[in-house]
Target: Glucanase
Amino acid sequence: MKRHSGLYKAALQLGLGQHRTRHLLLRALHDISRRVKVILDLTNIAYPPSSFRGFPAERGENKVKVGRCTLGDRYKGILLARQFCAPSSPLHAVACALVLLPTAVLSAPQAADANPYLGKVPFANKGYAKKLEETISYFTKRRDLLSAARTRTVQKIPTFAWVSESQSIPSIKELVSDALRAQTLTRKKQLLQIVVYNLPDRDCSAKASDGEFHLDDDGLNKYKGFIDSIAAELQTVAAKKLSFVLILEPDSLGNIVTNLNVPKCAGAASAYKEGTSYAIAKLQIPNVAIYLDAAHGGWLGWDDNLAPSATLFAEVLEDAKTITPNATVRGLAINVSNYNQYASVVRENFTEWSNSWDEFHYVNSLAPHLETSGYPAHFIVDQGRAGQGAIRTEWGQWCNIRNAGFGIRPTTDQASPVAHVPAPEAGSWFNDYVVNLVKKANPPLSPTLF
Model:
């Protein structure tokens, strides 16, 4: 405990004796070392081309669902790799703090289970950057040069590309070419991020983004051909020089968990499972990491939905192994194109009855069920529209929410979501933190000139 003496002293202040404190603290650390198997390949950025705050609604080809409304094609980015820790008592909180220090007690994951983002640069999608020129023009015409400059910053932030219809498959070749060019210029390994979204009779509960394939027109077999074409594009000579992250089929498996009372969802359930398993099996490519979509905390995070969701994800993965033995996935993507904050500053009233009241707590709620079912507990958490809290009055509001803002930027930081990092060892002077204490003093400090 010597290297963490400051936290050890804090534990003593809980009123326990020295021997008892040391014993319980070590026990808590041991418990966490067994339970901290969750790696958050966390997320940022579903930059929404929606009609708020100077972002005119797009009229592009690829229409995709945000809850019960249709938007133009969207892109997601990534906040990556946090160790996960959920304290359940004051002493346990101290142990969590030890775990979450930059000099963490727990070892990093082995290479075979490595976060696919580590050591790579997620690609900043040129197609999305081009669309943002309209937003820059909007601000410039209104002489809002600061917002225009901030939008240029958005152009440089990594984004996902959506492949949501057959005619968008050729765009993969262009994305690969652009990413390879960036890799050559920067001499940094590029990671290309893609969302695959085209199951037959998709969006079964809302009908906002029905898609091109339908079960009454051989849609499942057409979808399998669609996946085969994507797999071919990801195995070209050029593509093998890059790394990829794929998110499969937003909302689809979530509808199986909760919406089988909707006739279209009940009719599509088996095709959703078979199609997703097929996609997993056929996209087993060495430089590709796969994440299934797991909706968000306001949907599948309710206690009664957690175990059925984990069971379904594991079942789909096992079915993929009947096609391609030893098929694997990296984990789950959550909050795709939604507004839930990763770590809410305060709990919003409409979340009162849920233990998954933000995405941090959703991960905490779902992870034990995933471990029980044998599904990997690694997460991408979309924060692209989650920069502002208190902009809704219920979870059901998820279409172009007014006053939304971009959220957390992509990062591989493995510290606590509320911690100031990097930080020195306990007992050392932490000047960056003092700078923040001065700047954020409330009420403000009065100046002393001499």
In short: The chain is about 35% helix and 10% strand.
